[in-house]
Amino acid sequence: MDAQLPAGDEAVDRLEKLCIKQGMRMTEQRRVIARVLSLAHDHPDVEELHRRAHAVDPHISIATVYRTVRLFEEAGILTRHEFHGGRSRYEEAGESHHDHLIDMKSGKVIEFVDEEIEALQKAIARRLGFRLVDHRLELYGVPSEENN
After folding, report:
1. Tens digits of per-residue pLDDT, 43-97?
2. Which of 38, 39, 41, 103 has its CA 20 to 30 A from that of 95?
3. DSSP string, 26-58
4. Angle at CA of residue 74, ends 132 and 80, nearest 5°
């Protein structure tokens, strides 16, 4: 292996432990991919995950990353997002609820929580005769003139 991932770090081991708890067989390559995902503070696509995992273990192929991501998603460990731009991007599932603002110029994904928006969504569902059980909010924007 070329680059090293920190060992024994709770954040690094989090996804790996979830995989084991799900009864998944953890090969060394799956372990590397799980650790790379645990360390991600962004929402990487498969190509970016491959780049990061390949830096740790040059034997990891893009096909292995695709298979592993699909396996993790099916197990409920990862959440796939289809943000504009055509590429699926991933984040750890089960983290606290949050919404996303996507910068259309840079592709950066900003996570946020807004209690006012949460309350409004519940109120709208209630007004329409529903109890909200799940939702996803994605906002797309470009930096305003004020931020430049």
Report:
1. 888 999 999 999 999 999 999 999 999 999 998 888 888 877 677 888 888 767 8
2. 103
3. --HHHHHHHHHHHH-SS--BHHHHHHHHHHH-T
4. 60
Burial class of residue 55, CB neighbours in 10 A (0-12, 13-18, 19+) = middle
β-pair partners for 101:
110, 139
**Structure tokens given for 147:** 């931020």
Instruction: Give the separation between CA 60 and CA 83, rounded to whole angstroms.
Output: 26
Residue 132 backbone class (left: φ over 0; alpha: ψ -120 to 50; beta: rest): beta
pLDDT, tens digit, 9 for 90 and up, residues 90-111: 888 876 788 889 888 888 888 8
pTM of the model: 0.71
Cα-only R_g, the chain: 18
At 3, phi and psi to the nearest 5?
-80, 160
Beta-strand runs (E) in the chain: 78-81, 89-92, 99-103, 109-112, 138-141
